[in-house]
Amino acid sequence: EVKLVESGGGLVQPGRSLKLSCAASGFSFNDYWMGWVRQAPGKGLEWIGEINQDSSTINYTPSLKDKFTISRDNAQNTLYLQMSKLGSEDTAIYYCARAEGLYPYWGQGTLVTVSS
Amino acid sequence: NIVLTQSPATLSVTPGESVSLSCRASQSISTSIHWYQQKSNESPRLLIKYASQSISGIPSRFSGSGSGTDFTLSINRVESEDFSIYYCQQSYSSLFTFGSGTKLEIK
After folding, report:
1. CB of A18 within 8 A of CB of A112?
2. What's the whole-number average pLDDT of chain A?
3. Which chain A residues are closer than 8 Å to B47 by Cβ?
């Protein structure tokens, strides 16, 4: 069974950084692209970006390219999202997903709240 | 970025009715569109891939059509469990995008 479990969310002050993790199991992690999607409270889905199997290609939505960094550790079957210079607009549920051009598998999400 | 425009924003229907939800792309994307359902407080669920291809485990009342810039998700005889929000997503460019969603609500 494919399982994706995000962690690392919580309350963070404006301007600070935060790193999210996504632990993958039930499939061969290093065979797949992986991605991050977020959803602000009461809003729609926003694609953040994706990373390929060996981390040689990482795509980001342009508006977040300078703030967010996606990485992965294939030995640990873990995907990461490093977020910097956080603002209130970054308050959202952050989902990781297995990427195949589309997203058949999603984690349950982790809530990040940016507030002083 | 390719912009996806979904309409209507909200659709009010009676259970048993059949509905069509629209997703329009800002440029031609062939059939690189996928549909998701998101129920309250849940992660999105993939319903349809590549405009019209079915997904294992998804009820047959869900179907998709379209190519180029205009796409449709159809639900034949809406059931109570279908009232949720529906999103389209494109994978034509390497920078993926989602539509803003259509909320299907009970009339």
Report:
1. yes
2. 98
3. none
- The pairing of strands B45-49 and B4-7 is unpaired
Instruction: Select from A45, A50, A108 the Cβ nearest to the Cβ of B87.
Output: A45
Q: What is the pLDDT of residues B54-104, one digit of tens each?
A: 999 999 999 999 999 999 999 999 999 999 999 999 999 999 999 999 999
Instruction: Determine whether the interchain pair A47/B98 forms a contact, defined as Cβ–Cβ distance below 8 Å.
Output: yes
- Among B45, B87, B95, beta carbon nearest to A59: B95
Question: A32 touching B, CB under 8 A?
Answer: no
